[in-house]
Design brief:
Blueprint (H helix, E strand, L loop, with lengths): L21 H24 L6 H9 L3 H16 L3 H22 L2 H12 L8 H15 L7 H31 L1 E4 L10 H13 L5 E4 L2 H10 L3 H12 L11 H17 L5 H6 L7 H34 L9 H13 L3 H4 L5 H16 L2 E4 L11 E6 L5 E8 L11 E6 L2 E3 L2 E3 L2 E5 L15 H18 L20 H7 L5 H7 L11 H11 L3 H19 L9 H9 L18 H4 L9 H19 L4 H12 L7 H9 L6 H6 L5
Parallel strand pairs: 5-9
Antiparallel strand pairs: 1-2, 3-4, 4-5, 6-9, 7-8
Helix pairs in contact: 1-2, 1-3, 1-4, 2-6, 5-6, 7-11, 13-21, 16-17, 16-19, 17-18, 18-24, 25-26
Bound molecules: zinc ion (ZN).
Length: 676
Amino acid sequence: MNILLNTFDTKFNTAPFESIKNKDYKPAILKLIEEAKKDIDAIVNNTAVPKFENTIEALEFSGQQLERVTSIFFNLNSAETNDEIQKIAQDISPILTEFGNDITLNQALFTKVKTVFDSKDSLDLTTEQNTLLDKKYKSFSRNGANLSEDKKLKLRAIDKQLASLKLKFGENLLAETNAFEMLLTKEEEVSGLPEGAKEAAKQLAESKDKDGWLITLDYPSYIPFMTYADRRDLREKLAKASGAKGFKNDALDNQSNVLDIARLRFERANLLGYKTHSHFVLEERMAETPEKVNSFLQDLLVKAKPAAEREFAELENFAKELDTIDQLEKWDSAYYSEKLKQKLFNLDDEQLKPYFKLENVIDGAFQVATKLFGLQFKKIDTIDKYHEDVMTYEVLDENNDLVSIFYADFFPRAGKRNGAWMTSYKPQFIKDGINERPHISNVCNFTKPTKSKPSLLTFNEVTTLFHEFGHGLHGMLANTTYPSLSGTSVFWDFVELPSQVLENWCYEKEALELFAKHYETGEVIPMDLVAKIKESATFQEGMQTLRQLSFGLLDMSWHGINPSDITDVKTHEYKTFEDTNLYPDVKENCMSTAFAHIFQGGYSSGYYSYKWAEVLDADAFDYFKEEGIFNKDVAKKFKDNVLSQGGTENPMILYKRFRGQEPKPEALLKRAGLIK
Ligand SMILES: [Zn+2]
């Protein structure tokens, strides 16, 4: 009897972690795929006229147990994995991809979906149903379902080419990163490096049977060296090596890959009826069009540039005073910025950590949620856990009704990947009149307490906890009918609003007083320290903004136009950077050939969303600040129009309903200290 094959007979219907055996997964998933296929066949073979219920809704609720089981499996592959689970993941991933393709390429199914879509005006659908219909239709049409057979073949050929080019781009980048080593043998060559970084460099050298210190282009090695190493010539050497990745006209060069990827994406978009690749991507984003993204970036650029130039001049003066540097170069940036930051703020983690005992911070996040949304968090020990470190909570509303189950998994261990994230073990949805509540999880990697020492968080970890908890609230407070529109299933440039907005409470006196208490004395964190945290958080914000904008503009410059006019990667890039450059150009370096986010990963026409999300969260928090950071009415508006609504409507409509107007960048610029 495979426990994964049936609805779980557990309290709150939680995942029966302690009864699942690894060997259950693969057979269960294979069996559930077969069942899901039968669900699909039933839709296709239905002889009744295709309607919303028998087609779109039926498709939405098909293969539910399969999704439940795969989400448990892949969540555990991130949070508590081992060789056996990884092996199973390798086995089943291609099978699941193929199953997904079988659906989107199922022409008979599409014909039914299209029939419903074409008659939608006569169907009297709710807003949420309309959104679902649109989403389902586009999951086919955006994959070419409307194309003629020869164009379909062409699309598949382009997809295949793109996949292999992206792979090649990544392989070249990795090979370039691994090919470079800088072996230092004299103590003065590592002067300035903190002990930890020196130790790591020494160990790396030893691991390769070398004497001295080995520096590489891997971030954990590269970043500390650029930030602390006193030897300017060595920083230059390292920076130039890093900047030349994929740009040396050799076997690992990425220039033609960049040009080909941009050209094929453009062709693909044209084939599907879109003007450019950006038009294709942005159709499913809050920003909607490349014109809007470009004017968003340009507007911020104009407003941030004066501050950036001021900060650059300040940094230049500082470097001149300190080391008689005449022309600040790219490899001086991190080094002098760090020194200037120390001089201005002299703030270090150790000063702050005693005020941020983990238990207090968790309690603080819960208290903020209580004050804003009336939620109560009750620890429960009667449901299964996948590891003893996981803490489990029943989340209740003011009427003591169940809102969600919440798993908090905060400590690192061998089977957990790095970083911090939110995920769910069961989605929220309404079916047969029952509002199924979600099971949400936050996973982080904070230092584990010992018998003698509690877990004390750095300030960065505090904001990380609040960030993930914000995603968590988006999941917990979900209140939609359809699971694929629920909680965090929103457009990509909207998903960071709930998480980033919650970080703002970490900087507010009224919130910090609730939980930032010294773990030994109970003293509340001194407000001059808080002021310093706030101020240092906006250190060089103008320059940082300019840098982010330059990446966003570069991304759009490759994808928002017809790229066939671009013949030379570096020339194109140089022109694009003209308005954002503060440092002299390094002619043997190129950004595009190593810009993995957009040419290898999934960020093409999406880099702007980092800044977009910041504008949203600052603008939203400004509303709270105007009315009081614990104002119940504003919180209710946020919950009713944003957190509970998931992706049921266009995010701009949801946002305007909450805020009363479209988001404006002024709050961000003010928070960042760029305007008064
Ligand atoms: Zn996030």
